[in-house]
Amino acid sequence: MIRRDRREHKIQAARLTATRQEIENLRLRHSTRQTIARAWEGTRKFRVDKKVAETPNCHSIYLVPHDGKPLPPFEPGQFLTFSLKLDDGHRPTVRCYSLSDQPHQEYYRCTIKKIPPPQENPSAPGGKVSTYFNEVVCESDLLDVEAPRGSFVLNTSSPDPVVLLAGGSASLRY
What is the pTM of this model? Predict the structure, then answer.
């Protein structure tokens, strides 16, 4: 009876320790998100430092802050929101693209694939903004960017293994 009680006590203690660690991890993640959310309000100007062709229809855009201020970190799975003034003269077009590199103090990187016209209507236009990034945006251009955000992120503080499956950067066809 005493052995069973000791075993139960050890199990309970281990569960309590694991729960406390998980709470601490959640606090840390929440704190990081709050810091990122307060990094800047609205948009901030970023200069395209480098544009690298990954394939003929996919480019990585390296962005550095135009104001020279430091970049806040981000979590795996977060994205940047771009506010673009395209040639149509209307209000800005807003699109989000995933950050495609680990955090760096000097730059952010997004990799953007040009979305082609639908197969069933090849004369229709392709993706307006993805085409803009791939065909129009050049090194030294200034872009309006919001701080990294998104809550569907990888928990990097967990000791549990992670399995990631990816199908590539392709538009789905049915």
Answer: 0.72
Whether the Cβ atoms of residue 139 and residue 48 lie closer than 8 Å to each other: yes
**What does the angle CA 59 – CA 41 – CA 33 come to, to the nearest 5 degrees?**
75
Q: Round to the nearest angstrom and report the end-to-end CA distance of the chain.
A: 63
CATH 3.40.50.620 for domain 42-149, yes or no, is no
20 to each of 17, 25, 110, 140, 172, how far by Cα in Å?
Answer: 5, 9, 36, 48, 43
- Phi, psi of 131, deg, nearest 5: -65, -40
Judged by average pLDDT, the poorest of 14-23, 60-69, 127-136 is: 14-23
Residue 136 φ/ψ region, left for φ over 0, alpha for ψ in the -120 to 50 degree band, beta for the rest: alpha
Place of tokens 């544009």: 51
Q: What is the pLDDT of residues 83-109, one digit of tens each?
A: 999 876 678 999 999 999 999 999 999
Domain boundaries, the chain: 1-38, 42-149
Could you count the other beta carbons within 10 Å of the beta carbon of residue 86?
12
Distance CA 56, CA 58 (A): 6
Instruction: Give residue 32's pLDDT band: very low, low, confident or very high (50, 70, 90).
Output: low
Please report the sign of the dihedral spanned by the C-alpha atoms of residue 52, residue 37, residue 82, residue 64: negative
